[in-house]
TrEMBL record:
UniProt similarity note: Belongs to the DXR family.
Gene3D superfamilies in UniProt: 1.10.1740.10, NAD(P)-binding Rossmann-like Domain
Family matches, as PANTHER family: 1-DEOXY-D-XYLULOSE 5-PHOSPHATE REDUCTOISOMERASE, 1-DEOXY-D-XYLULOSE 5-PHOSPHATE REDUCTOISOMERASE, CHLOROPLASTIC
This enzyme's EC code(s): 1.1.1.267
GO terms of molecular function: 1-deoxy-D-xylulose-5-phosphate reductoisomerase activity
Positions of the 1-deoxy-D-xylulose 5-phosphate reductoisomerase N-terminal domain: 4-132
The name this protein goes by in its record: 1-deoxy-D-xylulose 5-phosphate reductoisomerase
Protein species of origin: Candidatus Methylopumilus universalis
Described function: Catalyzes the NADPH-dependent rearrangement and reduction of 1-deoxy-D-xylulose-5-phosphate (DXP) to 2-C-methyl-D-erythritol 4-phosphate (MEP).
Top-rank taxon, per record: Bacteria
SUPFAM superfamilies with a match to the protein in the record: 1-deoxy-D-xylulose-5-phosphate reductoisomerase, C-terminal domain (SSF69055), Glyceraldehyde-3-phosphate dehydrogenase-like, C-terminal domain (SSF55347), NAD(P)-binding Rossmann-fold domains (SSF51735)
Database matches in HAMAP family: DXP_reductoisom (MF_00183)
Keywords, alphabetical: Isoprene biosynthesis, Magnesium, Manganese, Metal-binding, NADP, Oxidoreductase
Length: 395
């Protein structure tokens, strides 16, 4: 029986993971659930899956959670220590940690899981973007297992030689092709993007996701973060990663080999597929997802990304080229920018402007510890908020 901690159980990834686990309760046991503040859903999840522990990061939500579970006579223990995430991620009774917390908040508990040698199913791409070298080093030193849940990276894993696992070198690989839907504004003009509203940006054509990742998809920053993630996951240089717009989101990514072969993983756009594969890797289990109907699909289209219209993707490649703390700065500035856009404090196009400003303003430095990473993250966030305040005063 595999015991599982889900960091971020009320988000899209967490909910989909629980749906897959529900189909295989003879194989998987939910040991702990954590979330930010969706008390009602978290209460429902505790009632159905009966984890040993649960924790809500929001203090008020955590107190309400205690009341809810007490009323249900639940045996689940509600933790209230600020270090609960790290403690659960490294708990001796935990086999597997699903890291599905959105943003930088997922870094420390995911590192705790890595340092404890856990099997990590990674959806929190920010861990690799912010601290890729440190995280990969921790995984190797503790003999942890790292399996990506992102549909694109999971697809790459599926078409790599399985004996080599997450390894680019000596596999006869020429390049990796990361597919992108293009988001809701793929056919919009640069002029039209000036007037985009949060409501419009949250209408993704193919995927149902949380607000932050949906906005990242609209700006194509999500694909930029995935390029950085792929470099660390597969030990591959950025020059050998190509982003391809594929509006149907049927091909989830491809690997081109030196003999001219290109292998792709296809499937309906449903996160239960990569989650099921990550849980059972290298075997396969039922996910609850219907098979792909090629006749109904009819066509698969591809095009190059427009970096002039979507500069965030280019900024991610720039961060990789600079190295050191640049990806950390990129991520922190983006998180602040997305939140500001959702609050309508900045425009859609100002998301990229803010990120580029921070990348140019924060001094490059090496990252030798998680504390240093968090210092850079904090410094960048303060700078980004100052930029927003300044632009709001002058507008």
């Amino acid at each position: 029986m595999e015991t599982i901690v889900i960091l971020g159980s009320t988000g899209s990834i967490g909910c989909n993971a629980l749906q897959v686990i529900k189909l295989h309760q003879d194989k998987y046991k939910v040991f702990a659930l954590t979330a930010n503040g969706n008390v009602d859903l978290l209460t429902e999840q505790c009632s159905e899956f009966e984890p040993q522990f649960v924790f809500a990061l929001n203090r008020e939500a955590n107190q309400q959670l205690k009341k809810n579970l007490l009323a249900l006579n639940s045996k689940t223990i509600v933790l209230d220590d600020e270090n609960s995430l790290d403690w659960l991620a490294s708990h001796k009774e935990t086999n597997t940690v699903i890291s599905a917390i959105v943003g930088a908040a997922g870094l420390k508990p995911t590192m705790a899981a890595a340092n404890s040698g856990k099997k990590i199913l990674l959806a929190n791409k920010e861990t690799l973007v912010m601290a890729g070298e440190l995280f990969v080093k921790a995984v190797k030193q503790s003999n942890a297992t790292l399996i990506p849940i992102d549909s694109e990276h999971n697809a790459i894993l599926q078409v790599l030689p399985q004996s080599k696992k997450l390894n680019y070198k000596s596999n006869g690989i020429r390049k990796i092709l990361l597919t992108a839907s293009g988001g809701p504004f793929r056919t919009s003009t640069k002029e039209e993007l000036k007037h985009v509203t949060p409501k419009e940006a949250l209408r993704h054509p193919n995927w149902i996701m949380g607000k932050k990742i949906t906005i990242d998809s609209a700006t194509m920053m999500n694909k930029g973060l995935e390029v950085i993630e792929a470099c660390w996951l597969f030990d591959i240089p950025a020059s050998d990663i190509e982003v391809v717009i594929h509006p149907q989101s049927i091909i989830h990514s491809l690997v081109e080999y030196v003999d001219g072969s290109t292998l792709a993983q296809l499937g309906n756009p449903d996160m239960r597929t990569p989650i099921a594969y990550a849980l059972s890797h290298p075997e396969r289990i039922e996910s609850g997802v219907l098979g792909l109907d090629l006749i109904k699909t009819k066509r698969l289209d591809f095009e190059a990304p427009d970096l002039d219209k979507f500069p965030c993707l280019g900024l991610a490649y720039k961060a990789l080229h600079i190295g050191k703390n640049a990806p950390t700065i990129l991520n922190a500035a983006n998180e602040v920018a997305v939140e500001a856009f959702l609050k309508e404090s900045i425009t859609f196009n100002q998301i990229a402007e803010l990120i580029e400003f921070c990348m140019d303003a924060v001094e490059p430095q090496s990252l030798d510890s998680i504390e240093t990473v968090l210092e850079v993250d904090s410094k960048t966030r303060h700078l980004a908020l100052s930029w927003i305040d300044c632009h709001n005063l002058t507008s």
